[in-house]
Write a structure and sequence with these properties.
This protein is an alpha/beta fold. It is built from 16 helices and 9 strands.
Length: 372
Amino acid sequence: MGYYETITRYRDFDFNKALNAVLADHVRMAVNGEGLDADQFLSLLSPAAECYLEEMAEKAHEITLRNFGRTIQLYTPMYLSNHCENECVYCGFSAKNDIERRMLTLGEVGSEAESIASTGLKHILVLTGESRKMSPPGYIKDCIKVLKRYFSSIAIEIYPLTEDEYREAVAEGVDGLTIYQEVYDEDIYYAMHPGGPKRDYNFRLDAPERGSRAGMRSVNLGVLLGLDDWRREVFLMGLHAKYLQDRHPEAEIGISLPRLRPHSGSFNAPYSVKDRDIVRMILALRLFLPRLGITISTREDPAFRENLIGLGVTRMSAGSTTVVGGRTAARRGDAHPSQFEILDWRSVEEIKKVLESKGYQGVLKDWMRLEK
């Protein structure tokens, strides 16, 4: 199973005991060190590291400039369908929620793509609800055929595929995979996913490696902050990212740090995650994995997103919507259900200007697909 064998060592690990045992000297050694190991990474997430945020920020800034320069890659999500077979308790698209379900026609995919492309963006993240029946792999591939006329980079965030299906997607023009484990603690995972194919914890956990083996140029992981203690989750996600970097050096490995946001349903996050906590996550991850891509989405408010520039973030979404066909629907004045609420509604041009004011460049395109 690969990474599963790595995290089983921490199945009965007492994280609180380990975190509270970290001393100031351990944190200083980690901040001043290179090539950090798992124990040093854990020390940067510990309560003892709270007094070293300034030193961590300076080191993280220097590492990020060295590896990524003063650039932030910009992308936007595009929702193709909200049909879903899962009963995730925290999601607006849950099969248990009584919402309008829809799936874009290929003509609507083209209209939505044209609207996004008019902003200059060349990187897109394609999303669906998790339903093989209503948005099967064949439908995804047909959509990709339309989208690659408009975009240089197409990533997918859909239900987990087999390795052969990922290979077929790559052959069609997909170059990136985003898939969140949501929560690494298995007991919490099963509680959060009471029904549907998503209950297969191991199949989802192994999906990033299947995508890497299939030839994905970039693979992005994520935990949904608020489902479990953030220190434990970020630690396990960091080890997952390192595992993939070591096993698949040809792939660009990245992570996202999405916080739970309001959605259809009555679920409330069991764990609190503060802005300062997210800053610590970013700094610790950057010191542990210097080449890691780090994404901050429009789930966060504009001022906070701006304050994260320069601390380790390498990728930001812009001009976002979590509604199926959201751009063309907005032009028509149609109202459709969203997966969750977003806080930063600014356009691509507005985000670019913010980055420029801080001495950074918003990158709309950073590679060219070679047609065979």
